[in-house]
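User: quick one, sequence for these tokens?
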């Protein structure tokens, strides 16, 4: 059959394009429209199903330690605030343990022992509450900066940025545990007699100098290691949270710079 031939619409026999009537059945062929090639239908737009969370809170925290890429992808695609507050609660418990450890390392005797011990307990309690409030504010501010610094045209949500930022703090929890264990071993016991207040103040200054030296020797390098790990987790989360538009390296740099600023501020302003 040539390009000028086509089947009769009445009987199906092949007829020529120049014929006015079918030679088989006599049907009229004059009113038939020319046969034109039809364009293929546009491909059907398939909307991917919404992402379903794979891991529970406990599994997410566990996966952050053994498979951080899997965990941060799940966190970025199914964000929540529960993870951060669970990590914050762990940090609060660890801080309380650290304070209790410090109080065991400091042995106060003498005339004003009871008053000074009570005053220290009150000061430490207030300091912990203030620290928790500041940590939450720091998390919100950091999440806001991360959202816009790592956006890369994806317009990802603040909830995703805050979830990614919050879960990255798991690195602080691990290094806090290691820091408590190390501090218990290397921080010297401090004994002070408050009968002579002038001598007691001098002893406290000497002890603080020892602690600052240990802090510079051990705490700062450990903090930098923790910051590197936290920044890597944040880089992964930013990468997945922005639909891979922001590279892991860019996300890492954003987290590392923000964390380094906070680390230097806290290191130099702490007593």
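Assistant:
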């Amino acid at each position: 059959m040539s390009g000028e031939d086509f089947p009769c619409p009445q009987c199906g026999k092949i007829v020529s394009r120049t014929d006015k009537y079918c030679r088989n059945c006599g049907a009229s062929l004059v009113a038939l429209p020319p046969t034109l090639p039809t364009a293929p239908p546009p491909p059907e737009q398939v909307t991917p199903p919404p992402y379903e969370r794979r891991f529970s809170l406990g599994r997410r925290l566990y996966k952050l330690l053994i498979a951080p890429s899997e965990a941060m992808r799940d966190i970025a695609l199914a964000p929540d605030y529960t993870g951060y507050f669970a990590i914050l609660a762990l940090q609060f418990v660890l801080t309380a343990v650290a304070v209790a450890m410090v109080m065991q390392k400091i042995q106060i005797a003498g005339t004003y022992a009871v008053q000074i011990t009570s005053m220290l307990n009150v000061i430490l309690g207030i300091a912990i509450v203030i620290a928790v409030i500041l940590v939450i504010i720091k998390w919100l501010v950091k999440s806001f900066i991360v959202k816009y610094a790592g956006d890369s045209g994806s317009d990802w949500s603040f909830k995703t940025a805050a979830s990614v930022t919050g879960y990255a703090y798991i690195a602080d929890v691990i290094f806090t545990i290691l820091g408590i264990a190390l501090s218990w071993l290397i921080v010297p016991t401090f004994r002070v007699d408050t009968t002579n207040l002038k001598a007691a103040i001098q002893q406290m200054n000497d002890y603080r100098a020892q602690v600052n030296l240990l802090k510079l020797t051990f705490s700062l390098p450990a903090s930098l290691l923790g910051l590197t790990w936290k920044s890597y987790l944040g880089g992964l989360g930013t990468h997945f949270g922005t639909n891979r538009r922001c590279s892991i390296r860019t996300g890492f740099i954003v987290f590392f710079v923000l964390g380094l600023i906070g680390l230097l501020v806290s290191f130099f302003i702490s007593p």
